[in-house]
Specification:
This protein has 311 residues and is an alpha/beta fold. The chain is 29% helix and 25% strand. It has helices at residues 56-64, 86-92, 113-118, 126-135, 152-165, 182-197, 209-215, 233-238, 246-254, 288-292; strands spanning 9-21, 27-40, 45-49, 71-79, 82-83, 97-100, 170-174, 201-205, 218-223, 226-232, 297-300, 303-306. It has an eight-stranded mixed beta sheet, sandwiched between helices. α4 (126-135) packs across α5. The longest helix is centred in the middle third of the chain and has 16 residues, at 182-197.
Length: 311
């Protein structure tokens, strides 16, 4: 019998909404994430894929406790089996859990790059930092520069380096590769892979899913703020017949190397969510059951899927 692994991060029935006011100053609640689930184990890279607005970055902010005051979080978040409370988030953030933010504006404009990459550690390692910079193709003088002296691609590589320099057990990388050349992106993902091989975990939020397939262990597909499929990365490499959810199949077919095939319709706005399955208005498999009821998550062929008709 296979021994059950301990989880590092577990999200179950996670929902995030925001209190908003309309033109008549009437308070409403805008649901952005609903019934989202995801589990991350030590020693793996989990890629999170989905269109813009599907809740990927919002999920990361919920885990780190970086949501604004008008946000309401429901459901369960656990880290190493313990409930991830606001106090625990503050304690872990920047230490056990490191973030590679999507925006390079997170770099302190008044601090030299080398000092930012080293962080607050008293035993900083210039040799390790310079080794990372060398692998990323950053010149040694980069450590003495200020962020405004960096190109966009250089700033992105510096941000990734700050996480790689940390002793974090979990790294959440939110779109870490834009602005990088293909070689630089591959090198960065390879370094994440090496960290996972050492027993750490990486949650990789990315639009470069064709690159992520090569380095990830599993891929979680988000649609309108919920998880529709979690599958081994090998299934995405194998092609659409190995995938379970119709949206995952559509994502695969939409990649340039797979024909760039579009599907009808658009992802619905969070304030106009359809009843039943969120993908039903665009789905070729949809029937009356799909339009009336939200599918439950079930195990299927070594993965998980939220769909009545997946086989």
């Amino acid at each position: 019998m296979e021994q059950k692994r301990d989880t590092l991060l577990e999200l179950h029935d996670l929902s995030v909404s925001f209190r908003m006011y309309d033109s008549a100053l009437k308070q409403t609640e805008l649901q952005m994430i609903s019934d989202l689930h995801l589990t991350v184990y030590p020693g793996e890279v989990v890629a999170v894929a989905g269109a813009s607005g599907s809740g990927k970055s919002l999920m990361a902010s919920a885990v780190l406790g970086l949501l604004p005051p008008n946000a309401t979080v429901r459901g369960h978040m656990h880290y190493c089996g313990r409930e991830l409370t606001p106090e625990m988030q503050k304690e872990l953030r920047g230490g056990e859990i490191a973030l590679v933010p999507q925006s390079v504006s997170y770099l302190d404009p008044l601090m030299r790059v080398g000092k930012q990459v080293d962080g607050h550690k008293k035993d900083s390692s210039p040799g390790k930092r310079r080794g990372l910079f060398q692998r990323f193709g950053l010149p040694e003088r980069t450590e003495k520069l200020y962020p405004f002296q960096l190109s966009g691609g250089m700033a992105r590589r510096v941000l990734v380096s700050t996480a790689l320099m940390s002793d974090a057990r979990l790294i959440i990388a939110d779109e870490p590769t834009p602005g990088m050349s293909l070689e630089q992106a591959m090198e960065g993902l390879q370094m994440f892979r090496e960290l996972a091989n050492e027993g750490k975990a990486v949650l990789l939020i990315t639009h470069d899913i064709d690159l992520a397939f090569e380095f990830a262990d599993r891929v979680a597909v988000f649609y309108v703020g919920t998880t529709v499929e979690i599958a081994p990365a090998s299934d995405f490499r194998a092609g659409p017949d190995a995938l379970r959810h119709p949206y995952s199949k559509a994502l695969w077919k939409a990649l340039p190397q797979n024909g760039f095939v579009p599907i009808k319709g658009t992802q619905p706005y969070a304030g106009d969510i359809p009843k039943g399955c969120l993908f039903a208005p665009r789905c070729p498999w949809a029937d009356e059951q799909c339009r009336a009821c939200v599918p439950f998550v079930r195990d299927l062929r070594g993965g998980e899927v939220r769909c009545f008709h997946a086989t």
